Amino acid sequence: MSVETRTVAAGPGWRVQDVLCSHGPQDPAFEEQHGDVAIAAVTAGSFQYRTRAGDAVLVPGALLLGNAGACFQCGHEHARGDRCLAFHFSPRHFECVAADAGVDAKFSAPSLPPLPQLVPLLAEAEAARDAGDGDAFEELAVRLIGAVARLLASSKQRTHRFSTRDERRITEAVRRIERASDRPITLSALARAADLSPYHFLRSFRAVVGLTPYQFLLRTRLNRAALRLRNSRHAISAIAFEEGFNDLSTFNRRFRRLVGMSPGEYRARA
User: Fold this and answer.
1) 30: how many CB neighbours lie within 10 A of its CB?
2) Residue 100: what pLDDT?
């Protein structure tokens, strides 16, 4: 199995890489070390991230956070493969941006969950990657540092405990949602597939992912819709229905609540 890394943009003190990993459960996890400060957005798949700051299961929309010099392990204990958009910063460059933003230059947590607030920024980054728009990434990198700092400052970082068995079951549920986000998915069906009661499944999913199953499903649908609004000229109504929203008004309302503008305004600005 392999890890393919492609640099999509770089500048003094920073670079952005598209990382495609095909490792699976049979591949051992090796200890590595962050050479620079790292913020990696997961765009597909999932993996386990182990650090001294804590452990996390990273799923689409989540952010891996790594301090320069910190040791870590990444493993695929339950499923194969992932794709990340990895932002790397020299410690000096990161400290300068963090100082301007008035935030700590050290991450206090190993990751951030796939929060809906990150959807517009990450969709813009994915669109720039897919379009080969390297010029967009210098600004995106600075905005990402600011967004991470604000979210870390406002969130209550709590250590959730979950078993390896629950971790595997929830990882499988995440992959199921990722594959079928455009179709109706119920809590009871997900719980039944995981062989858990709905209550235990809901509690475990939130502990592992950081969101409820419905919140993760909605975040996945909105992220894919935002990407299609940027990358295609399909009708907004078609995008809404094809991404799993039952009616256009619901899509418009949820999109505006998340992004701060209507899908049409978002497309025009993009």
Assistant:
1) 8
2) 80
Tens-digit pLDDT profile for residues 65-103: 999 999 999 999 988 999 999 999 999 999 988 888 776
| The pairing of beta strand 37-45 with beta strand 3-11 | unpaired
Residue position matching structure tokens 């999509």 = 8
CA 126/CA 122 separation, integer angstroms: 6
Give the distance from CA 61 to its chain's centroid. 2
DSSP letter assigned to residue 135: G
Beta-sheet pairing, 47-51 with 111-112: unpaired
Annotated domain spans of the chain = 3-154, 164-269
Tokens of 160: 């959730």
Q: Are the beta carbons of 148 and 112 closer than 8 angstroms?
A: yes
User: For 3-154, which CATH superfamily applies?
Assistant: Regulatory protein AraC (2.60.120.280)
For the 164-269 domain, the top CATH level (class) is mainly alpha
171-210 b/e (C-beta count within 10 Å ≥ 16 → b)? bbbbbbbbeebeeebebeebbeebebebeebbbbbbbbbb
Q: From start to end of 14-171, where are the E strands?
A: 14-21, 31-33, 37-45, 47-51, 54-58, 63-66, 71-75, 82-89, 111-112
Interval 10-29 mean pLDDT: 94
